[in-house]
Amino acid sequence: MKEQKTRSLPVRIIRRVIKYAVRLVLAVIILSAVILATIQTPPGKRLLARALTRIASTPETTIRFGRISGILPFRVRLSELRLGDPEGDWMVIEDSRVRLDPFELLSLRLHATSVTVERVTWYRIPEAGEEDDSGDEEQSSFTPAEIPSLTVDRLTVKKATAAESLVGRRVEVSLEGEVSNSVSLGPRAQLRLAPLWREGEVMTVSANSAADLSRLEVELKLDEAGGGELGGFFFPGDPGPLAFRFRAEGPWEGVKTELSLGLPDRLEVKGDLTLDLSRILLEGELTASVGRPPFPGWAGRGDLSARFTVEDGGQNLSARIEGRDLACPIIGLERFRVEAELADLFRAVRGEVNLQAAAASLPTPEDDPDPGDLFGEVTGRLVLHNGGRAPGADLELQIRGYTIPGLLLQPGEIRVLDLTGRLGADRLELTVQGTGERGFRLESRLSAASRLPAGLFSVEFPEDGDLKGSLSAGIDLSFLNNYLALTRQTLGGRAEIEFGLGGTWSRPVPRGRIAISGGEYQNLNTGTVLHDLTGRLEVEEDRLVLEELTARTPRPSRPLFFSWTRFIPGIRFTPLADQDREITKSGRISLTGSTRLSPAEGYPSSYTLLLEDALLADMELVTAIVAGKIEFQGSLKESRLAGKLRLRRLEGRIPTRVASSVPEIEVTEINKPGEEAPRPPTRPEPFLEKMALDLKLTAPNNVVVQGRGLDSEWKADISVSGTAAAPEIRGGLTLLSGIFIFMGEEMTLGDCTVMMDGEYPPVPQLKINARIVKPDIVMDLQVVGPVTKPEVLISSQPPYPNDEILARLLFGRPASQLSGLQALQIANGLRTLQGQAGFFDLLTSWTSFLGNIQVDFTDLEGTEDQTAVRVRWSLSRNFYIENQRSIESPNNLFLARWEIIRNFQLRVQSGYGILGDSAFLHWQMDY
């Protein structure tokens, strides 16, 4: 009995252990079931999302899980997954669905039969975490072995979007494939990417790596038809078919790559390179052949060859670029070559770059046959030194046969420009020397403090760093004629420039002068001619002083006849010979003043312009001689222009033919393609808006207006106020005396003005009155209204219609009794009154340089029934020569009239006809 009890004790213990083990297992199962059941509930899933967020996130990286749903852990749906760094989210994954294999999960392996993602948005590259300053040099690198085993049989991303534009547009693609990671074998991926904006194009990507990243294999393939996105990146607007291949294989420290990119007749790139991904270094060769540059508006051909080597852990480069017939929006080159031998690119770059280029030209319009040569040949050499010695660079550049854009330099001239420079650790030195024909010379030097805080490609100029510079040059001003020729202007003379520079970068101190001698200027638009042009400009520390800028104008032309006459009290011979105002000497123009070099104050300035009988305009229609003074005071912020001018002589000649105005018809275009928004009206410069005007222009007499039968003298009194942007002009011209020869009849002018009332824009108002008295009729002619649209009125005493007035005025008989030629003359007179050219104006338009010539019909002198063609040559208001030739008989008369003094005239008549060959001298006195 005792033995039985002894034997049953171990059995009872085993039974109890099994009993408790079963209870424990049941408890674990029940607890697991409870936990599993709990996380299936919405509160449990929210707790799980928060717990996963806390576990996965670190101070440098944040991973936030959104709402979790589905049957966990086999069919999981995640509304959102956000990956971020201290700067914010850099990737967002939306609406993910994962199906896991439950049997693999029991074996603690992740095997997803499918992963489907609706949308992935990539915002930027994540920020790198802070470096560990602990000093532990044996930091372990991350490897895929640290990621649990994972297999995804089918990965689908319906839309992956890059928020920032890539290859010129916003990229959206779909993705399909499979990925896996094995602790022992490493990660693998097979993916197909298709753009959502195009159909039929797919990029395939296959990659695998060893678990410790000791070996990597990558292959990319893409074939695009014309118009593809990658082709459009290389050739915007004109993409062609493109083939892209990239293959990489090898250990992490020596991945061998093969690269090829081809666009037929455009671009071909090939490369065999070895990459050290642990240090980002290259070894191998890269070649490229360009049949057409991949930039809009570019043309030409070129070849590139580059060889990369690694020595002592430094990246070296040997490269050569050759091009032909290059044309771009900036410059054109017939040929060029660049050779570079550089060592240790990423740490302490050093080496040499050589440049050769020939036959450079500026771009010109297609219809311009002149290529616009810029220079014949340029050679250059740049030496970079670093490493064992202080970092710096030496530059040598020589340009031969150069042409400064816009300046007139002949192709045969010898021109050389040499530029040398040196950039050291604490100083920049530059020297420029130039020579050329026609006395051109240039010599400039600059020495300035500088710093190289981060190598040769980062230069700083300290504000308190010193400056030392000089400039010495001699220039023939005719160089500028190529510019001025477009505005019909020419310039001559010579400028000598001597400048010095001191101070610091923050406060430069310039000193020097510019001297102009032997200058000549001509403006064909205004007839302005300046000679003996001299000037001297001094540059001080804070002032620009124009000590002298003077020129002389030509002596005014003298009247062709009677230039010997003089003014006799009470007797006037000709208007141009009223010589209390006769001008016989050349005029003079001078400008002096200064500007303070103070940008904060708007460059305060003071200038004075002095005119001494200056012939400013000498054209066919206008001749003007002006005297007076104009002063400018102020700055760019506020200024005042004031002065008094006197018109010493102003001669205006009315052209024979006046361009007729064409009325503008307002048109509204409907459904206009590509209609642009209306441009806002342009505003004047603020400088002009803040320039106050106070100008006075006077002329007590000698303002002469002639032409189309008018011979008159005026006085002027004009004031200008307001601003330069909106001047207010008041006053105008008032008639002193004058006549208007209309259809051979002399009309007396009286009470005539041309006035302005201060409105802007100014519109002169005309008031012209002319009268002629005949025994049987008095005719009045009035021109009133704005000069842009004057109104012509004709009246008579006794009152008659316009054609009847002209018939009685010219022929002394009613219009019904006129012959055909006389009626034609009446029609010619009506055209003249309407501002149109007369029938004979075409015959006399070329004779304007001879004086005022009129051709018309009239009654032959001494008859009433013979019509004659009359040619009258008016040398002045007081003297004219006339020839009358009858069209009905051989009668021919020559007349000359000279008004010696007012109301007393002599008339000479000769010819043959009804009175036979004869000559007469008549005198006439009007009381």
Structural description of this entry:
There is one protein chain. The chain is mainly β and 927 residues long. It has a 40-stranded mixed sheet that branches. It starts with a helix and ends with a strand. 15% of the residues are buried.
Strand content: over 45%
Shape descriptor: elongated
What count of helical segments does DSSP give?
A: 9
Largest sheet composition: 40 strands, mixed
Q: Percent helix among the residues?
A: 10-25%
Rg calc: 48 Å
- What would you call the quaternary organization? single chain
Low-confidence stretches: 131-146, 559-581, 658-665, 839-851
First and last CA, distance: 186 Å
> pLDDT average, as an integer?
76
Total strands: the figure is 46
Secondary-structure content class? mainly beta
